[in-house]
Amino acid sequence: MTLLIGLMMSTALLASETGLQLIVQPPASYSSKDTIHIVGNFNDWQLDGDEAEQLQWVEGRLQADLNVEQGELFFTFVKNKSWRNMPASLDGRSLCTFHRSIADSTSQIQVSLPAWNTDSPIKERSSTVTGTVKYLRQIYNPQFERFDDIAVYLPQSYSPQSDKRYPVLYMLDGQNLFDTATSYSDEWQIDERLAKLESEQDLEMIVVAVPNSEQRWTEYNPWPFLNSEGKQVEGKGAATIAFIQHTLKPVIDSKFNTLQSQTGLAGSSLGGLMALYAGIEHGKVFSFVAAFSPALDIHNKDGENVLFAALKNKQLSASKIYFDMGWVEYGDYARVNQLAQLLETAYGKQQHKLKLVKDDLGRHCELDWSKRFPDAIEWLIASDSN
User: Taking the model in full, what pTM does it have?
Assistant: First the structure.
């Protein structure tokens, strides 16, 4: 395989077994009627059966005695055996999976849980935007018959009077990119990441944050798929791309100094699936795409992976494609390896346009996608790799 592969933070995830005491400070909303379970890579994320680990109330705190192995421990907590009840910050943002390195000397770890994501926020969010972010308010979205607020990051050197033009990256889940005040989980810190790229790598670009609605599952599924109830649903991902391509892009190109030959799309999870869809079906519009931890467990009524089915017998060459995956997300790299093989076949002699990064410590959250973002963008738009 000639596909370009990057391997981040390679490590033996678990080694020899050791005893570990877990001490947890529960949220203020904790009730003795609540059951709290810890799930992680040490028990295959199980809430039931012999592997399940329920925390016990001991002397004013929750605790559990775990048999874990040395190495990297990933875990989180579930209240009342409902995956809807997960840890959150005091201002209501979902928290990423916890990570601890376990060594011979580790006998106890302590964790504080601020709140659950089903609790009402008890703290106001403050804005964390840095640099220049312009807002285009109430842009009509005819594909979904609504109005969207669009945030646009501009490089430090940007001047409307200048002839200089910049690559443009459209990013999905736009609420989470620049500002903690608008994000529903951790923010990507794209504004901070780009400012650093500008100062250290002289790499500049415009980023357009495209928000989603409460119908994210259909908006970010480009093909018919089976929902959680096993019913086939018509994905509306094509309409999402149509909004970006035919409605939003003309507005951005008319208002800002864009380099239209370098237009990209990026997203994570279902947004990553959408980025790959854009590369597959709209490569002439999106010259580069970045799929961070793309969703690879979406199937159609025939039981086929929707993305894998779409790639069969395809011949591609237009878009540069960056895609990545964390080991923790699926417990292996089998799915992303299969994706790599399909893309390699589709690209043939153009495999230099593909880059896969495997992150052995990668979790399914904005904190880790943000860490991988600078290297992804540098590879995608650097002049020497086009």
Answer: 0.92
